[in-house]
Specification:
There is one protein chain. Helix content is 35%, strand content 27%. The longest helix is centred in the middle third of the chain and has 36 residues. Helix 4 runs antiparallel to helix 7. With 350 residues, the protein is of the alpha+beta class. The radius of gyration is 30 Å and the shape is elongated. Strands 1, 2, 3, 4, 5, 6 and 7 form a seven-stranded antiparallel β-sheet that branches. A six-stranded antiparallel β-sheet has the order 9-8-12-11-10-13.
Length: 350
């Protein structure tokens, strides 16, 4: 049921009533906010308990969702928040590179059950709002058309859309404000409760984490492309129990020596593949031969076809807090201008 709900939810196929029925079936603890008889509390108390229950169930739903990609996650969270807070408009905006404007990457309208995107708001048109968003944890505008931070929107945004109240929270990635989570209420002015403000901050944190995860994935993909086309092998070795253990190698190892990454990430391969006459270069203690924790030397490594390739090895040694060798980051470059192994020599070895 959950996978169907997730798929349909982001395509606008589930109504608010259906979602509320689903969330109220989530397992509850013995907390006082559950199962309180109507006759034992006032209407206001009952309304508060129902509101808190919706928020709690929504937060549980957020923690149970996996990584479905940034676009799907954002659509899910704007829908979820609109239904939970019974707010007609919930949107996510991101700053441009110069922080001179924000662009809407998703707006969910509860009354229309519709997602849209693309609107742009410029800082020069709404300076008070942009200034507040850079310095506040949340903007609580019960009377948005008169609030000092949001009244700039009145003429061309709030009145035309019938928006009376706003509740906005900044999105932060890498410790800086990178966007806004915006809630816009249509109808009579609304007083945002403290628990609603706290809930919005929690959702903003979830969106911020999704943005950071997407940025990390994009950076990782870019790095993978760079390493794949870099005409050198970048490798990492871990120092453990007096041995140097291969941890990782970049994809160019396949083109350089014909081996897959999985084949070269073994201690045995590194020693068995080195030319017997060059093994002496790796003799001695692990930290030996490094000058200012750097070392460069050349040796022959066996290609998968049986022949040998002359490799230039540049390494940097990293030490732990006790000053002991901890790991090595190195680069292999093939040397093709040497006449033979007799010209192999150690470079910069002390």
């Amino acid at each position: 049921m959950q996978s169907v709900q997730w798929h349909n939810l982001c395509n606008g196929a589930i109504s608010g009533d259906f979602f509320r029925r689903c969330t109220t079936r989530l397992p509850m603890s013995d907390s006082p906010i559950t199962n309180i008889p109507d006759k034992a509390v006032s209407d206001s108390r009952r309304i508060e308990q129902e509101r808190l229950l919706r928020q709690r169930n929504a937060l549980i739903a957020i923690t149970q969702q996996g990584d479905a990609g940034l676009d799907t996650t954002i659509k899910y969270l704007t829908y979820l928040t609109a239904v939970t807070l019974e707010t007609d408009r919930v949107s996510v905006w991101l700053y441009n590179d110069g922080n001179t404007a924000i662009r809407c990457i998703d707006l969910y309208e509860l009354s229309k059950n519709l997602h849209s995107a693309g609107a742009i708001l410029k800082a020069e048109d709404y300076p008070m709002y942009f200034q507040a968003m850079a310095g506040l944890n949340v903007i609580v505008a019960n009377d948005a058309q008169e609030d000092r931070y949001t009244r700039e929107f009145t003429g061309d945004y709030l009145k035309p859309l019938g928006i009376t109240s706003m509740l906005d929270a900044p999105l932060r990635t890498g410790g800086v404000v990178s966007g806004v989570l915006c809630h816009e209420h249509i109808g009579p002015e609304r007083v945002w409760t403290t628990d609603e403000q706290t809930f919005v901050l929690s959702v903003a944190n979830a969106i911020s984490l999704a943005l950071e995860r997407a940025e990390h994935q994009a950076s990782h993909a870019q790095l993978e492309r760079l390493l794949e086309h870099c005409p050198a092998v970048i490798f990492r070795l871990r120092v453990q129990d007096g041995k140097v253990i291969p941890v990782s190698a970049s994809p160019y190892i396949i083109r350089l020596l014909g081996y897959s990454i999985e084949e070269v990430i073994t201690y045995e391969w590194w020693h068995e593949s080195l030319h017997p006459d060059d093994l002496y270069l790796l003799d001695g203690s692990i930290g030996e031969g490094f000058i200012d924790n750097k070392r460069s030397f050349e040796y022959r490594v066996r290609h998968k076809d049986g022949g040998y390739r002359l490799i230039e090895d540049h390494r940097t040694l990293f030490r732990n807090a006790a000053g002991e060798p901890d790991e090595i980051i190195g680069v292999w470059i093939e040397r093709i201008n040497r006449k033979g192994p007799q010209e192999i020599k150690s470079l910069g070895v002390g």
